[in-house]
Amino acid sequence: MNDDVALQSAAGTALRILFNPALTGTALRCFASIFRNFFGLQYWGLLNGKIPVSRVDHLLDEKIPFDPSRVEIYMDFSAFWIRCQGFLLRRFGSAAENEVRDFLAAIGTLYAFAAEVYKRNLSTTRRPRCLNNFRFWLIHTFDPHLMCIPSLHVMVMILSYTRFRKSISVMRAEKDCAAQCAEVDRGAGNITEAVLFVKQHSVNCIAAAMYAMTCFDGELFPPAEAEAFLSALFTGSLPDRDAEAVRGHIKNLYERFLDEGKNTEDWTRPLLNFLASQPQAEKKK
Q1: pLDDT tens digit string along 72-86?
Q2: Domain spans of the chain?
Q3: Which of 47, 62, 100, 219 gives a 20 to 30 Å CA spacing to 94?
Q4: What's this model's pTM, rounded to 2 decimal places?
Q5: What is the 3-state secondary structure (H, E, C) of the chain?
C-alpha cells in the first residue's frame, strides 16, 4: 500500500469519487459551486464591469522574489486536496466515505462563502509577465485575476490540512498516520508560499484568507491554529528578517480583521472596508 499522500493519483481519485454512488451527488454539487462561484463569477464580473475592483498590493510583496520555478507547486492546489481524499479512501476504504463527502461539501460551501466578498468587491494585484513559461501563459491568459481577497488558494489549503487531521482523528489513526499529517501540513504551507512567489497574490490576501477561514470554521481554524500555520511559513524560503516582517504584517492584519469582525454580524464587512480603502484598479477589457 502506498503511504505517501503525494503519490496518490489525483485523476484516479476523482474518477473513484465520481463513480462512487455515496459520493457522486456531493462531488457534482461541489464542482458546480467551484465553477459558478469562481470561474463563472469572475468572468461575469469582468464582463459586467459594475463591481468595483481594488488593487491590493503591499510594499512587503517586494521582499518576496518572483520565482517562476514554483509555478508547478502553485498549480498543484486542486490536485493536492484531491490526493488527500485519495489517501483516505485508499487507507480506510468505505469507512472514509463520510469524511470525504463532508470535505467535498465543505469545499463547495467554501467557494460560495468566499464569493460573498467577490460579488461586492473584486480585487487584483500586479503580475510580472513570464512569456517563456507555458504555465504562466495559461494562467495569465485564462485567469482574469480578479479574486485576490480572500485568497481561495490559501483558504482551500487551510481547509485541506485541518480537515485531513480531523478525518485521521475520526479514524483514530493519529499515531499510524502522523507522517501523512505532517506531509499534508508541509504541502499546504508550500502552496500557500507559492501563491506569493509566483505573484498571484499579495501578503494582504494571506491575512484575508486566514480571517475568512476563522469565520468559516472557527473550531478547526481558531486564532491559535492560525498563528501556528503562519509561524511555519517562509522558514528557510526567505531571509530571516524579511520572513519576520512578512509574518508580522500578516498577523497584524489578520488580528485587525478579527477585531473589526467582532462589531458586525456580517463577516465580510472587515474585508469590504479594507478593499474600499485600497486604490481602484483600471477596468480590465
Answers
A1: 999 999 999 999 999
A2: 5-276
A3: 219
A4: 0.95
A5: CCCCHHHCCHHHHHHHHHCCCCCHHHHHHHHHHHHHHHHHHHHHHHHHCCCCEEECCCHHHHHCCCCHHHHHHHHCHHHHHHHHHHHHHHHHHHHHHHHHHHHHHHHHHHHHHHHHHHCCCEEECCCCCCCCCHHHHHHHHHCCCCECCCCHHHHHHHHHHHHHHHHHHHCCCCCCCHHHHHHHHHHHHHHHHHHHHCCCCCHHHHHHHHHHHHHHCCCCCCHHHHHHHHHCCCECCECHHHHHHHHHHHHHHHHHHHHHHCCCCCCCHHHHHHHHCCCECCCCC
